[in-house]
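forwarding from the other thread:

> can someone predict this with protoporphyrin IX containing FE?

sure thing
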Amino acid sequence: MIDPLMIRPEIALADFLPIFISSALVLIFGGVYVGIYTAVKVKYLKPWAIIIAYGFWTLTAYCLYVMGSLMHVGDFTAKALVVAAIGLFLLPFAVYYMEDNVHKNNEHDTQGEEDGK
Amino acid sequence: MANNHLTSESKQLATWYLTFAAILFGAQLLFGLIAAIQYVMPGFLYGILDFSIARILHINALVVWMVFAMFGSVYWLLPDETGIETIGIKVGKLAYWVFVAAIVVVVLVFLLIQVGPASDTTIWFITEGREYIEAPRWADIGIVVVALTFVANLFLTGMKGKQTGIVTVLMADMIAFAGLYLAGMFFTDNISVDQYWWWWVIHLWVEATWEVFVGAIAAYGLITMIGAHRKVVEMWLWIEVAMLFGSGILGMGHHYFWIGTPEYWWEIGALFSALEPLPLVAMFVHVLYDWGKTQGAQNANGDETSVITNKPAFIWFVLNAFGNFLGAGVWGFFHTLPQINLYTHGTQFTSAHGHLAFFGAYATILVGMMYLAVQGKNGIKVMKNTKTSIWAVSMITGGVMGMTVALTIAGYVQVIVSRAQMGATWAAYFDGQSGVWFTQAMDWRLIMGVITFLGFLLLAKDLLTTGKNPVHER
Amino acid sequence: MANKSVWSDNRFWQRSATWVTGFAAILLIWLTFDTSAQISMGTDKDIQNKVTKRVPGPTVINYKITYERSPKRGLEVPIIGGNDGKGNSLFQEKEKFFGRDDWSEKEARAMLHLGKLGSQAKNCMDCHTLLGNGAYYAPDLTKSWLDPMWEDGTMQAIIGGTLGKELSKEEAMAEFLQHPELYPTHARQMPNLGITKKEAIGIVAFLKQMSSIDTNGFPRNFGKMKGAINGK
Ligand code: HEM
Ligand code: HEM
Ligand SMILES: [Fe+2]
């Protein structure tokens, strides 16, 4: 006899594909979010495109949710995933804020001796 | 070397390192092809050059060419950064020849002797038999000595000349890089302890010290190629160091799920390795940002020309930012949570990730450095793409992407059939390997591998000839 | 420069990087101490005293090993010398290994040592995975000692049939390792790696000991799913 507990994988067979796809999309959407955000800030895109960026972040968060629930992650991992989603949301703000600050602070000595080549 | 434009001895030495790296890159691909053929035709070279030997040469050539190219890159950028000639060039040259000679001997032993009896002598002189660091122990010691002379040169030069942020990061990083190798040099009967420390070398190299190295090289590249702002770039480099080490060091937990180590590594590995892609996303943004800013500033001055002074190198650098994100970030995140890694651990999935990550994160930027060296050596002011450069980069990148997709499909079949359905036994393994999807994926991997290799031949041709091409601005 | 914020201060980030790195490194070192203690190899005394170690000592080869579900941990664990019904090892039921079940600690350690050396000298890890790490060209060896092909006598029949004698599991395995090219079961074959008889015995001891390591339930459902081929 086969113990039913043994035969059933923790992850249902049909769930593997959605898990892989959603986990790939997490970062792809995340990357698009950050990319559009930056492109707007460096004026490659019009300001309204920022809405699209947030849309992509929402998709990222949704994919994380799908992935986490299909995988049956525990409490701890679920929290870690939420932290990662928030971290991703804040990331471009932080990067942009800091880089812009440095740029402003150094606008005057662009041609300064530290500029290497 | 009639019209050699290099006045710096350090840069001269750099070209030696980079040239040998390119040769080993070619060798790596050839042995990869042999191993890939064996998946499709198991009888190929059976008993003559078995899969294990082809694979050892494939992955060791990989690691070694990258180390060579990394040393070369540092020798290249040191005079620019510090403003002085590198100290200890003579020792550096001697170390180069020692290193090359050691590698030739190790390769010959791998090819001709292959395996030894179960004894310490084998471990000392033939193979240590631990994936990626199979080199016998005498060679380990040689490598450590060579690495230490390199680190010493870097330190002496950094301390005497101008110690920029980039140089500071490199100094700290290279010490850690050399030191970690020591964790892979001892023998133990306990396979769990063995693998625990083995990962200190493998993971802490590729997901910590090498990534930081790439950050430093990318910073240098942005400054030299598009004239990005040093202050911005260097501040960014420090942030990146914080993020990479902050997530990568404890992210090592994702290798400690199943090797006998305690269960608490599930949580630690999941948390920190889930954060590992963040710096990679950020790195990508940073390149976009700097490019946008510098081009924007130039356009504002009424100058519509490109800010890029080396087109082919810049393409490889951008590919690096993107490939790092894709190969390490996306394909890493794929299988980094323990719930899913239980099924994907040690399948073709891992191989898919390994290929795209090593290629995206390291091969790309190091090839970029080769182009920078060609530019410098030939005294070119603005280096353009040739048809060959474009074909080379497209075929190599397309080939590796194709292999990755094929391996991902194969990995999926393996996860479903061998792992989830059949419980990972010998019979389950071969059931997974014989499915149509799996065998076709292996065919495609081979085809894509051939394309990669042809792309490499074009790359070699381009690197050798483009310097004399009249299209560049001098 | 007066209103320069810390966020754009190079030195602030340099310090942060140093602190973050230092903190992560210290945490890793601390965890390494804890883990090292937990994965240190057990001894014969541990087995005598029925102490379950994550990595049991070499004399585990004198005992019967199985891989069963622990209800408490919700995953499969190695069971040494019988199950108490709750997923704990009893360390009672012995099993002959090359004709003996009283290998001394010293003898067993020497065999394991030879076997581990052999596994490296012959590059097993560049075709197989061990504990799931290595190459993907051949089956995972983590629990190969418990593989149904050896457990149910299939391989003993093939190898014993060829040699014309009755073989125990460990004898069949040792014979296979010495002459894998003589006993192919798939087109993809293991080559002859020049393994001697003594080395083969050591390697089998190494494989048996490896199957007794607590791998937190990897591989999952190992060998339990014979009835479940092709899905449902
Ligand atoms: C440039 C960076 C990286 C490189 C070059 C790289 C390369 C590799 C390679 C070669 C392996 C296979 C090791 C073996 O032979 O057993 C591996 C395994 C693995 N990598 Fe990465 N990796 C990188 C970054 C990442 C990141 C950022 C993550 C997670 C988000 C990750 C997650 C993993 C996991 C979970 C495994 C274990 C696979 C298994 O269980 O079989 N990697 N990596
Ligand atoms: C001509 C193209 C290539 C072919 C045909 C090829 C083929 C292979 C094969 C057959 C393996 C053994 C996998 C196994 O154990 O099943 C392998 C492993 C590996 N290759 Fe390649 N390869 C190629 C190019 C590359 C490139 C460009 C890189 C990176 C820059 C690379 C990095 C690796 C790594 C890191 C591994 C170890 C993977 C692991 O253990 O998970 N290969 N390759
Ligand atoms: Fe890792």
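The domain at 44-224 of chain C is CATH 1.10.760.10 (Cytochrome Bc1 Complex; Chain D, domain 2). thats all i got for now
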